[in-house]
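Model the whole thing, not chain by chain.
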Amino acid sequence: EVQVVESGGGLVQPGRSLRLSCAASGFTLDDYVMHWVRQAPGKGLEWVSTINENSASIGYADSVRGRFTISRDNAKNSLYLQMNSLRVEDTALYYCVRGGSSGWYPESWGQGTLITVSS
Amino acid sequence: AIRMTQSPFSLSASTGDRVTITCRASQGISNHLAWYQQKPGRAPKLLIHTASTLQSGVPSRFSGSASGTDFTLTISYLQSEDFATYYCLQYDTYPWTFGQGTKVEVK
């Protein structure tokens, strides 16, 4: 069974850093593009970042570019999101998502990890 | 950034109704368009990718179509489990962008 499980969420003060992790199981990580998508409380979905299978292609939302860094360790079946200079508006449920079996689209979603940025 | 204008924002419908939701892209995105369903407290679920390809396991009452920069999700015969919020996503050009969402409510 395909599973992605996020961890690392919590309460953090504005300006601080946090690192999210995503553990993949039930599939071979290096066969898939991976994504982070977030959802602020009561709001819609916002794409955050995408990394391709060998980390050669990476994309970021304008709202996080320069502050967030996506990375992956295929040997450890893990995806990461390093979040620096956090802002109140980064408060959201962060989903790790595996890419599609036949394309880059986000396909298999985790349950999310909540980040609350507040003083 | 490519803007995805999704409409309507919400709609009220009854079981058995045919429901149509539209996303318009501000520029060409080829067929790199996906549709998701989200229920309260749950992660989104992929319904359609590549504009019109039904994801494995998704009921055939869901369908997607494209005409230029206009994309449509149709639920042919609404079932009780289909009351949810639906989002489109363009994955053609960074930054990728979601539509604002359409909440399908009970009439």
